[in-house]
């Protein structure tokens, strides 16, 4: 379902109304110049001094060579659009009377394999009861979820095509530079008639953001190419028409700050979603919160830095190791962790089944150490 990760974008749709309008035949009136008086006979013109405000105009130096012209996006759009699909979803929600009501949403997908595999965002399809895909040739077909990964907001869906599909070409996102031109293509605002094409540049590489659910998305491409609701799951492409990112998030209230999941990160995860149906990671089984002075004061903590364990999932490795809600983790595998993002990365750097030492602080007691056996992450709910 199309649930933007950040606050709502306000947009204005200007509709021009009216038919033909006949203008009166207007001509510009050219003012006439006064005729100069004839010179006096045998009169010698008196020399005139230049006025005090006179200036001397000097011809400019030769202009420098102009900058190279802006790139044409026509070829990029024509190459990519056959691989871009509109994704419409239906789900069941509850109204204010807690009665089930149908809900609809829209997003975008990009075909990555002629067999019908399509990449989109997890938040587009995670609650969907039915998924339909509109192809560039006008066909609308049903799709099913192959795999989802909420941690990276990636999902793979599949359709059974009646004919061979045109898969998008995957680009090398590691070669992107800040300032490179990029193009976003997607089902913006679910407008009829085909995908919307917008252009911009790479504004930053390797950005990390925190979503409304508290998840951290890493290795994102920031771009000023316009990304709107409905663009979720669509491709960000370079000037060669190659997909370098999957558009995923925007910043509400900001101007042209959008984020795409780098294909350098996404590609191996997409392959795992196709092969395994999910991404298998080392799992601790906790909900985390970075300790700040405010958090420390609110929770009466004895430390000002570290990672607060907000919740321990029953039966998880953290639960079996004896960790409790309210404990503050300060180190893992011998390395200090100062925030929740660092602890997440430390966990992901381990292997499934490995045992690692964690240092934590409970109440007013000194640091303790415990060994935790990391297991495979459970399938997404």
Please describe what this structure looks like.
The protein folds into 3 domains: about 75-160, Beta Barrel (Thrombin, subunit H), CATH 2.40.10; about 170-275, Beta Barrel (Thrombin, subunit H); about 280-375, Pdz3 Domain (Roll). The protein is built from 6 helices and 21 strands. The protein has helices at about 75-80, 120-125, 265-275, 295-300, 315-320, 340-350, and strands at about 85-95, 100-115, 115-120, 130-135, 140-150, 155-160, 170, 180-185, 195-210, 215-225, 235, 240-250, 260, 280-285, 285-290, 305-310, 330, 335, 355-360, 370-375, 375. The strands form 4 sheets. It has a 6-stranded antiparallel β-barrel with strand order 1-2-3-6-5-4. A 6-stranded antiparallel barrel has the order 8-9-10-13-12-11. Strands 15, 16, 17, 18, 19 and 20 form a 6-stranded antiparallel beta sheet that branches. Strand 1 and strand 2 (about 100-115) form a beta hairpin. The two termini are about 15 Å apart.
Q: Quick recap of the structure?
A:
This protein is mainly beta.
Primary descriptors:
mainly beta; globular; disordered N terminus; six-stranded antiparallel barrel; 381 residues; single chain; Thrombin, subunit H; 6 helices; six-stranded antiparallel β-barrel; Pdz3 Domain
């Amino acid at each position: 379902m199309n649930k933007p990760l950040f606050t709502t974008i306000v947009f204005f749709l200007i509709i021009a109304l009216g038919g033909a309008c006949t203008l009166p035949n207007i001509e510009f009136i050219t003012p006439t110049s006064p005729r100069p008086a004839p010179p006096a006979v045998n009169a010698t013109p008196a020399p005139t001094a230049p006025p005090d405000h006179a200036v001397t105009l000097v011809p400019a130096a030769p202009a420098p060579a102009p900058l190279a012209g802006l790139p044409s996006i026509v070829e990029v759009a024509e190459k990519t659009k056959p691989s871009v699909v509109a994704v419409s979803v239906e789900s069941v929600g509850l109204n204010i009377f807690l009665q089930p009501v149908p809900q609809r949403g829209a997003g975008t997908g990009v075909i990555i394999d002629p067999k019908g595999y399509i990449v989109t965002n997890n938040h587009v399809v995670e609650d969907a009861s039915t998924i339909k895909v509109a192809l560039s040739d006008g066909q609308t077909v049903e799709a099913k979820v192959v795999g989802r990964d909420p941690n990276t907001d990636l999902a793979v869906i599949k359709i059974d095509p009646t004919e061979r599909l045109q898969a998008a070409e995957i680009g090398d996102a590691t070669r992107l530079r800040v300032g490179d031109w990029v193009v976003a293509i997607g089902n913006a605002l679910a407008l009829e008639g085909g995908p919307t094409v917008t252009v911009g540049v790479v504004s930053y590489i390797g950005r990390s953001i925190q979503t409304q659910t508290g998840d951290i998305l890493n290795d994102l491409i920031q771009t000023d190419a316009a990304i709107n609701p409905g663009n979720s799951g669509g491709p960000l492409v370079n000037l060669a028409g190659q997909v370098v990112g999957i558009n995923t998030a925007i910043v509400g209230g900001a101007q042209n700050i959008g984020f795409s999941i780098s294909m350098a990160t996404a590609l191996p995860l997409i392959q795992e979603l196709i092969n395994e149906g999910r991404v298998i990671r080392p799992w601790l089984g906790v909900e985390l919160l970075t300790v700040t002075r405010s958090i420390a004061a609110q929770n009466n903590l004895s430390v000002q830095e570290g990672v607060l364990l907000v919740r321990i999932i029953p039966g998880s490795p953290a639960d079996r190791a004896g960790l409790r809600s309210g404990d503050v983790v300060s180190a893992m595998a011998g390395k200090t962790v100062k925030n929740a993002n660092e602890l997440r990365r430390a966990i992901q750097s381990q292997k499934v089944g490995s045992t690692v030492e964690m240092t934590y602080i409970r109440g007013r007691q000194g640091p303790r150490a415990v060994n935790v056996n990391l297991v495979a992450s459970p399938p997404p709910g």
